[in-house]
Amino acid sequence: MSTEPAASTLARPRTRPAWHVATVAETRRETPTAVRLVLDVPTWPGSEAGAHLDLRLTAPDGYQASRSYSVAASTPAAPGSPGQVVLAVDEVPDGEVSPFLVRDVRPGDQLELHGPLGAFFVWRPGQSTRPVQLVAGGSGVVPLYAMAAAHAAAADETPFRLLYSVRTPDDVWFADELAALAGPTLALDLVYTRRAPEGTADVVGRLTRESFAARVLPAAERPRVYVCGSTGFVETVAGWLQELGHAAGDIHTERFGGLT
Ligand SMILES: Cc1cc2nc3c(=O)[nH]c(=O)nc-3n(C[C@H](O)[C@H](O)[C@H](O)COP(=O)(O)OP(=O)(O)OC[C@H]3O[C@@H](n4cnc5c(N)ncnc54)[C@H](O)[C@@H]3O)c2cc1C
């Protein structure tokens, strides 16, 4: 008997995330500089909390540009109903792709998505009973919001904390959703770097190593830590975590680009 695989097996591509055609169902202002995009995706298989995808735009002359975006929420396609993917995009001044997504995309427009992608920066219900510390800077909250929402939806009892650094109260992404999650299932700690909510005594300013250490779970509790934001934010926070005694293997990072 031959051990050669059949020609059809050789010709079959390995299973890999597919390209999907998405139709914009809704656009909503998220913050003064960011927009939320709700996309209908008839072939979307669903995604784990923390996953991302590649979004591709094609110009009329055929020029293409793609960028990665984290999935804030998604539901898989089912017979008779398309899947849905929620993204949130911040406008990077002079950027190639994000200004178009924030300013020009309208309901009915079509975009191409490749994914879901990313197996390392995900949180799965029941994965571990160790506490989870999430640390977000600005737009970096997107995959961490997905994790917090999945944690609540699964009624998972793992302690969850989110330390979220934003410039002002107007810059909080998923503000209503995070406020609804905050409480027994999510310890939410907002840090304002430029302006705090009126009438509060919150200290305004960037996190320092000392203020960070006072606000996150200590290394002795062996939390699994997920950090997401600009490259500069993530590298600073990851450095502090290691100095505070967190094992490198417990620190999961996702860098969105940019320095601040
Ligand atoms: C895994 C992953 C997930 C991501 N998820 C999100 C998300 O959910 N929401 C979101 O808004 N962005 C997200 N990003 C960032 C996104 O992929 C783009 O980098 C961003 O939208 C800028 O693209 P652009 O084409 O407008 O800018 P570009 O034309 O690529 O860059 C223009 C200039 O801006 C700088 N720059 C690039 N990215 C950033 C940034 N994030 N902050 C500041 N400066 C930057 C570049 O170095 C360059 O100087 C993610 C990135 C990765 C790798």
UniProtKB/TrEMBL annotation:
Concerning PANTHER family, the annotation shows:
NADH OXIDOREDUCTASE HCR, PROTEIN RFBI
The record, for Gene3D superfamilies, names: Nucleotide-binding domain of ferredoxin-NADP reductase (FNR) module, Translation factors
Q: Tell me which residues make up the FAD-binding FR-type domain.
A: 17-123
Q: Which cofactor does the UniProt annotation name?
A: FAD
Keyword Metal-binding attributed? yes
Q: Which GO terms describe its molecular function?
A: 2 iron, 2 sulfur cluster binding; oxidoreductase activity
User: InterPro entries from the entry?
Assistant: Cbr1-like_FAD-bd_dom, FAD-bd_FR_type, FNR_nucleotide-bd, MRET, OxRdtase_FAD/NAD-bd, Riboflavin_synthase-like_b-brl
Q: Which Pfam families match?
A: FAD_binding_6, NAD_binding_1
Q: Which UniProt keywords apply?
A: 2Fe-2S, Iron, Iron-sulfur, Metal-binding
Please state what the protein is called.
Oxidoreductase
- Source organism per entry reads Promicromonospora citrea
User: Does the record carry Metal-binding as a key word?
Assistant: yes
